[in-house]
Amino acid sequence: MAGLEKKSTAFDDENLSGRSQKLFFDITEEENFTYYGNHEVDFNKRIEIDCEKLDGNQLNQKIRDALRDGYGSVVIKNPGAKHALGVGILNKLNLIFEGSLGYFGVGCIDGPTVRINGRVGWSCAENMMSGKVVVENNAGSCFGAALRGGDLIVKGNAGARTGIDMKGGTILIGGNAGAYTGFMMQRGRIIVCGDVSANMGDSMYDGIIFVGGEPKSLGTDCVEGEMNEHEVRWLEQKFKNAEIETKVPASKFKKYVAGRMLWNYDNLEPAEKKGILG
Amino acid sequence: MCGIAGVINKKKNVNVGEQMSLMLQGIKHRGPDSTGYAMYGKPKKDGFILRFKVSENVAEQSSSKAEDPEDLKDRKKQVDAIMKTHGAKITKQSNSTPYAFRYEFTYKSENLEELAKAIETVENTEILSIGKGLELIKDLGDATTVADQYGLNKFMGTHGIGHTRMATESDVDIKSAHPYWAFPYQDVAVVHNGQLTNYWGNRRILERSGYRFNSNCDSEIIAVYIADKMAKGIDLEQSMHDSLDELDGVFTYIVSTKDQLGMAKDHMAAKPMVIYEGEDIVACASEEVAIRNIFPHEIKTYDPYEAEVKVWQV
Known about the structure:
Distance between the termini of chain A: 7 Å
CATH topology of chain B: Glutamine Phosphoribosylpyrophosphate, subunit 1, domain 1
Number of helices of chain A: 4
Number of strands of chain B: 17
Structural class of chain A: alpha/beta
Order of helices and strands of chain A: HEHEEEEEEEEEHEH
Oligomer: heterodimer
Helix content of chain B: 25-40%
Largest sheet of chain B: 6 strands, antiparallel
Shape of chain B: globular
Strand content of chain B: 25-35%
Number of helices of chain B: 8
C-alpha cells in the first residue's frame, strides 16, 4: 500500500453500512484489504474430484475446499456438461476438466490456468479477470462474454456473439466464429483463425479483431484497420503459446477496429488498474 | 425458456422412448410445466395410429378446470360414431388417462383431412397426431412423469422429438404443450424454443387458407407453416429454409417426418442448440446435458450457426 494516499470520494459523507466498497478498498485498514477466497497453494499438490454425482454448487465447494487445503492442481473427472462448474475461482490454480462443461463454465475467475478436455456451452469464462483458459473442442455462444483480462483459447469453433461486451484480455479461436462476434466490445483483442459469420464487430467501441479467414459481413462501426509488424509478432507468439497452427501466416491476417470514436476511457486495462490497487 | 431435443437412429429400431425420456429429463429445468413426445415406431403397412384427447389434465398446476367424467365418456362415444360414419374401422384401442386415447384404425383413403376435421367437431376434442408411425404424447409434468404415465420407456422406433415447456405465451395445459402435429399431414411434428413476433399476421393468413389452430401458442404456427409448404409441394429442407425468412423472431426448432429429422436456427442464433453426429445416431438438444444422458462417455458436439438448417435421414 506504500505510496498511495487515501483520496476523498463522493461517498465520504454517506453513512455506509455493511460490506461496502468504501470499506473494501480502505487502504488505511490493511486487514480489510484482503482478496476473498485467496489461498497459498502448491502446484505439486494434486487432487482428483469425481463430478459424476455432484451438482455445480457441490463441485465448486469441493474446489474451494481443495484450495483452502493448499492443492495447486485439481483434476475434475466426469464433468458431464453440467452448468456453472469452476466459477468464482480467485486464486492461482492449475485446474483440469476431463470432459465438457455446460453453460457458464469457469465464469468470474481471476488467476487460474484451466484446461478443458472437451467442449464448453454458452458463456464460458464470462467476466474472467485474469488467467488462462484452454478449450480443446468447440465452444458455444457468448464465449468470453464481458471478458476483462487473461487469455481465453478454443482450439475448435466458437458460437455466436463471441467476445460480446468484452473489456480486455484476448480471445483466440482456432476455427470459425459465429455471428455478432465482438458485438459491443469495448477493449481487448479477438483472434479468429478461420471465418467469421455476419455482422462482425457490430457496435464495437474499441479493441481489435484479427481474422485469418473472411468475415461474412461487418457490423455497424467496424472497419478494416492496418496491421503493423508488432501486431504480426504478437500474433505469432500467441499462436505459438497456444500451439495453434494457422492456415495462413500471421502476416496475412486482417485487422478490424472501431470506425468511430465512441469511447471515453483512460488508457489502463482493467487488469492494470487492479495491479496498481494491489 | 423451453427445452427441445431430438434423436434419430439410422436404419435400426431401438428403444427411442427411453432415449427421449432420458434426454428430456436432462433439460427439465428449462421447462417444468409440461413435457411432450413425438415418436416414430415401425410404420404400419395397413392403417393408421390416432392419438387424441377429449379433455385436459386438471392437475394442481393446470390452467384447466375439471369436467364431468360422464362428458368425457360421451365425447369418446361421439368420436367412435364419427369414425364409423366415415368408414374408419377401429382395430385396437387403449387409454392411459380418462382424457387421452390411442386408436389403431384402417381407413379407405390416405387423405385424412376430412376425418380429422369431423373428429375435432366433438366438444373439447383435439387430435394430437395421426400417422403411420407417429405417436404424439404430451401432458403436464416432467419427462419421467409423462413417460411413466403413458408407458413410453419401452417405445421401440427410429426417431423422435420432444419438448419441456415453460409456459410464457399461453396457459399451462395440454393443448399449449408441444410437440405440434402438422395438421392434416401424417407423421409430421414440430417442437420449438423461442418467440415468434409475427405470429398473429401469419396466423390470419394461414387461417384464411383453411388451416385450424387449437391454441394461442406461437409455436403451433411452425407446424402449420411447414404443413402449408409441404402441401404446395415444397420439400422439408426448403420449407425450413423459407421459414427463416418468413417467420420473425428468435427461435430454434426441430421438425420430424416419417423418415427425417431436421433442425433450424434463426438469423440471430439467439436460441441454443447442441448437436452430436455419430455414425448411426444423431442427437440434438438445447443443452449438452440432455445428450449426455444417453452418451455418458465423452463425445464431440457442436453448435449450429445462425440461419442454419440441417436434415437427417433415418
